[in-house]
Design goal:
single chain, alpha/beta, 8 strands, 18% strand
Length: 235
Amino acid sequence: IFDMHKNNHNLCIILARGGSKGLKNKNIIDFYGKPLIYYTIKPILDSKLFNKVIVSTDSKKIKEYSINFGAEVPFLRPKYLSDDKSSYKDALRHALIWTEKNYGRFQNVLYAYPTNPLREKEDFIEAHKLLLKKKSDLIISVTEDTHPIYWSNKIKKNYSMKNFVRAKYCKNRQLLPKTYHVDGSIWFGKWETFYKKRNFYKVNSHAMIYPTSKSIDIDNEYDLLMAKLKYEKKR
């Protein structure tokens, strides 16, 4: 029997709704013989870090797969939190409220999406170590930009390129500072951070540099192809 007051250290919440426009049923699309969500559940369970691994979904099919792969699906997410306009923060908070009511609070929470099949158990272990070492509220994975952001800008209505790139950045990319973007692979933080905060960049958060070779967010056919290419190199 689960003791809601003992050793509630780490909780994992995987958000996996059934609907998707860019790639139909992407969370359970076939990826080398297994549904995509398998590649998120397995390394998380293999890390041995978590007291609970819960999948929040509105899909009975995703629920069935998730349970077969070893995760728990103790509730179905309401439809109003499962459409294209739904906020992932609201869906995550809904899962935390349900968890608190039924299992109590946990110290730390890993929020994971099921569209990166390249993560390994060591990545979650490293993120947990960083969380403790930095005494952080939240560890966020970032990966290096392959294209200098200094060369990016909005297009004016008249399509003029005048001052599109600031003069000081008109140089070889090797001479420009490295920049990074949030890649979404890992969000590992304190319970209160996910439960109470709406802006994760105003808390005591720290970056985990994630290799581009394992960074992917499958949302369309091109992303799926890139994931397969990276996966083949990793095997």
